[in-house]
Structure formats: C-alpha cells, structure tokens
What we know:
Blueprint: E1 24-28, E2 42-46, H1 54-79, H2 91-110, H3 112-115, H4 133-138, H5 140-145
Antiparallel strand pairs: 1-2
Amino acid sequence: MHQKIDTRAGCKDSHGSPPLIEGTVIGLNVEHLPGGQPPKPMWLWASKPVPGDVREVDHWWSMYLRRFDIEHTFRFLKQNLGWARPHLREPNAADRWTWIVIAAHTSLRLVRPMAIECRLPWQQPIPESKVTPGRVRATYRRACQNTVHPANPPIASTAGPGRPRGGVNRVKPVTQPVGLAHYKG
C-alpha cells in the first residue's frame, strides 16, 4: 500500500519517485454502531512498522478518536467563532486574535451549566457533559441575562449638554427634489 501524497513540499528538491515510508496498516472491525447501521471495516495507518503490544494498537485507536474531536474543535473555532475570518497582516495581530478566540471558546465552556436551563422548547434535555459548544453559543445571550452582574451600567443623572443656548443650528436641512415623479401606468 502507498500513502497518497498531495504535494511534494517536503521532497520538492528531490526528483524521481517519492521515498518509501514503512508503517503498519491496522484493520478494525466494530461489532455494532449506534442507530443500527451496518458496521464497515476501518483501516488505520501508523508510521511505526511493527506494533510492540496490543495496548499500543489501542493507543493508536484512541488517538484516532481524539483526532476527530480536535478537527471538529478547529472547525467550530473557524466557522462559528470567526478564527480565520480576519485577514491580518502582522503576526502580533494574528496572535492577539487567536487569544481572543480562545477566550471566547473558554467563556462558552464556562457558561455550559447555565445553557442547560436555557434550552428551547423543542430541544431535548441533555446532561451537562453532552452539551455542545454550538448549543451553548445559541443560548449564550439568554444565559448571560440570568447571571448576576456585579456592576450595572452607569445611569446619567441629567440630560446631555446639547446645543448651547443662543447657538445657531449649523446642520443643513435635508431637501427633497421637487418635480414630476416618473410614473409608468
């Protein structure tokens, strides 16, 4: 078996056929899947030629499952929190934006217990450990309204200064064009 190479970035200076990389192909068979779907065999590839122990194969399987979680986290950060949306030119600005997105994701994780109480009527109740960041994001505004705010916004005791007494209004009034309207009858 040969792995698929999309680009020759790592081997761009070498000519001819790409180098062979030894590895192990692992075939996994699942007994049953949720929802009653028929299970299909899954093939994993590891760069280690021969696994030393069965526990090592279990570790590779768990790493594959963890990769699934990490990919969906990056997809959520990019699509829902706008991580890749701004086109920043300076590395410092990109670092600051990354930290802002991480802070937003952390706040979604912290608001998670309150999002359970703010579910919509058609949503099924689920335990806190199963609440997704997307569901928390959808109920974030309502969840924050239910929280205790240590400081309220300041309320002005008097009206603003406005135009000084005796001053002239310098804003020109809007004039509407006068004439026949174009009518198609």
